[in-house]
Amino acid sequence: MQGTILIGPGGVPKRNSLKFEPAPGLKDATITFGPTEYLTKISGTTTKINEVVVIESLPFYTNTNKLGYGPYGPTTGTAFEVPLENGEVVGFFGSAGDFINSIGIYVIPHAP
Q1: Do residues 45 and 57 make contact, with C-beta atoms less than 8 angstroms apart?
Q2: How many structural domains compose the chain?
Q3: Could you tell me which PANTHER family the record lists for this protein (predicted)?
Q4: For site-directed labelling of 69, which of 7, 17, 18, 49 has its Cα 20 to 30 A away?
Q5: Which residues form the domain of 90?
Q6: Residues 81, 93 contacting (CB under 8 angstroms)
């Protein structure tokens, strides 16, 4: 996947972008991928707000950036990780209200 991922409304995957509008006072973030760069791992933290579990932070890892982009958001909650072996993240899905409540990934095989 080549191009730019926008983290900043809607959450609907497009070929080279995802959009999510951050809370008021926070800035949009742009991650620009190199021509052979692709997502290899998603992780983050969750927390409870009014007894509802929400995604608190998300860093994004690629084949060329093992340290990751981000994290975007505070990292005080419970950690989670979705590692992949020989896979490439090509899209996202999830649910949200005022906050992101769940996130999932679409993956295709990627030759080592």
Answers
A1: yes
A2: 1
A3: OS05G0143600 PROTEIN
A4: 49
A5: 4-109
A6: no
Q: What angle do CA 16, 20, 24 make, to 5 degrees?
A: 145
The pLDDT tens digits for 26-42 are 666 777 788 888 888 88
- pLDDT band at residue 78, thresholds of 50, 70 and 90? very high
Strand 100-109 with 87-96, pairing: antiparallel
Q: What is the pLDDT of residues 5-29, one digit of tens each?
A: 444 333 333 334 444 445 556 666 7
Domain CATH code at residue 72? 2.100.10.30
**Which sign, positive or negative, has the C-alpha torsion 48, 19, 97, 38?**
negative
Measured CA to CA, the distance from residue 88 to residue 61 in angstroms comes to 11
Of all residues in the chain, the percent with pLDDT exceeding 70 is 73
